[in-house]
Amino acid sequence: MPKLIFFDIDGTLWDERMVIPESTISTLKRLQENGHKIFLCSGRARGNIRAKELLDIGFDGIIAACGNHIELDGEVIYENILSPELTEHVVNVLRKCHMPVVLEGPDYHWIDKEGFQEDPYVLYLFREMGESAKILEEYQKEIRINKFSGDVLPSTDYKEIRRQLGDAFDLLEHEGNVVEFVPKGSSKAT
Q: What average pLDDT does the segment 27-40 reach?
């Protein structure tokens, strides 16, 4: 009986050097040859899933942005975009509370120019995404995002951020100072 099989990117398909072992690629191809459907399932927003060596595998679909963007056979079948009002509120709160942010969307990422100068992930985003990684100067109506991430700095008022954004978002804390903000009720599992 054919199955739907879901694969995370970081630490699952890719190793710590962002290399996909040839044995993994051949196994994925065999799964498809045996009638199974294979899917990428990542916390990364779709705008940040663009590596040719990954996409050339030929996945049947992509679940991105912690379940807020879903593609099947190359077509978007579900997209949860934050409202312009909520996105503007997020930008204002994070600026006031001194948290640099990466606004993550299906096409572009908007990245604060201050606070990330030494962050290797942000440097990777600019390198990998090229013109799709934009500097966030201030809120603009054309910003379309599914989720966002920020760094807790010594000057960040994280308690106030949790108070103002905690009702709308699950706050996933990573690596001690990185926080991923995912709309409540959504995840890679949903």
A: 97
Token reading at 29:
């191809």
pLDDT at 161 over 90: yes
In this structure, the number of other CB atoms found within 10 A of the CB of residue 145 comes to 26
Average pLDDT over residues 24-36: 97
Residue 90 CB: number of other CB atoms within 10 A?
A: 24
In the predicted model, is pLDDT for residue 115 greater than 90?
Answer: no
The type of residue at 155 is S
Using alpha carbons, list the distances in angstroms from residue 86 to 27, 94, 105, 134, 157.
Answer: 42, 12, 14, 20, 19
Length of the chain in terms of residues written: 190
pTM of the predicted structure, to 2 decimals: 0.92
Q: Give mean pLDDT, residues 40-47.
A: 96
Tokens read off for 80:
């949860």
Diameter over CA atoms, the chain: 55
User: CA 48 → CA 54, 125, 165, distances in Å?
Assistant: 12, 7, 24
Name the CA radius of gyration of the chain, rounded: 17
Q: Which residue intervals of the chain are DSSP H helices?
A: 22-33, 52-55, 84-96, 120-129, 158-165
Spatial separation of the C-alpha atoms in residues 64 and 22, rounded to whole Å:
24
Q: Read off φ and ψ for residue 63, nearest 5 degrees.
A: -110, 120
Block residue for tokens 């503007």 = 88
The whole-angstrom separation of Cα 113 and Cα 85 is: 22
